[in-house]
Amino acid sequence: MTTQNINYLAVLIAAVSAMAVRYFWYAPGLFQETWLKVIGMDKCDKAAVENMKKESRSHPTFMFIATFISAAVMARFIDWLGATSMGAGIFVGFWGWLGFALPITVNDILFSGRENCHMWQLFLIQSSHHFFALLLMGGILGAWK
């Protein structure tokens, strides 16, 4: 096994693109309001919001590292499968979502201790975020193979 067939610029751009999806997904105007409500955060509670901001200052760094690892592993899968187009990469992204991200999200949500209505709202927000992020990463990596 070699890494000759991995385009690390594409891996970097795929990771940055997936991070952009995350920031867009949880932004005001899309799912931020619902997500905050479902996790029990009152955005009018200034102390709680400030505490959340303070605790999450290092999160972007760790999120990027995790997303970069995901993109690198997906690039390896795309290489192994011989996916050499955007469509083929999206296909790999879909199967990665279905086989890995979706079951993990289901388990996380089932054991989250939330009420059923909130549990499924949180599931839909998180799983659809993973869906679009993985499809985008797969498309980028497949196109730049």
What's a quick, concise take on this entry?
This protein has 145 residues and is mostly helical. It is built from six helices and no strands.
* Class based on secondary structure composition and strand pairing: mainly alpha
Large-scale geometry: globular
Order of helices and strands: HHHHHH
What is the residue-averaged pLDDT?
89
How much beta, percentage-wise?
under 5%
Helix proportion range = over 70%
What's the alpha carbon Rg, rounded to whole Å?
A: 17 Å
Distance between the termini: 17 Å
Unreliable residue stretches: none
Number of strands: 0
Number of helices: 6
Main pleated sheet: none
Number of domains: 1
Notes on the protein architecture:
The chain has 6 helices and no strands. Helix 1 (8-25) runs antiparallel to helix 6 (116-143) and helix 4 (59-81) packs across helix 6. It has 145 residues and is mostly helical. It has one domain (8-143).
Topology:
Blueprint: H1 8-25, H2 32-38, H3 46-55, H4 59-81, H5 86-110, H6 116-143
Which keywords apply here?
145 residues, 6 helices, 0% strand
